[in-house]
Amino acid sequence: MIGYVTLGTNDVKKAGQFYDALFAELGAKRGMENERFVMWTVSPDRPGVAIIKPFDGKAATVGNGAMVALTVDSRAKVDALHKKALELGGKCEGAPGERGPGFYAAYFRDLEGNKFAAFKAG
User: Fold this and answer.
1) Of 27, 31, 52, 73, whose CB has the highest number of CB atoms within 10 Å?
2) Exposed (0-12), middle (13-18) or buried (19+): which is 5, by Cβ within 10 Å?
């Protein structure tokens, strides 16, 4: 069920260097990255850990930038999960859509403000 976890950072380069070295101990390598985030994994079909600059533009703190990502088996389920979260009183953090080649995702917060993603990769 868990696909990946993100941790907020204010300095992608510095945090990237830290996690490159740390996760090398586990055999993990960078799997995805852009100017806002870097993700490490031991293989594309295994859960990953990422660092990211928070979507809201505020400083990363413990919790701001943290997110639980739920992997699903279709784009329709991404759409449905996002819709259901909003129906239940959640807040949209990013409408469903293509986020990169082969990566379709939607983002929302629960009633307490915890951030989640639903995604279909591939």
Assistant:
1) 52
2) middle
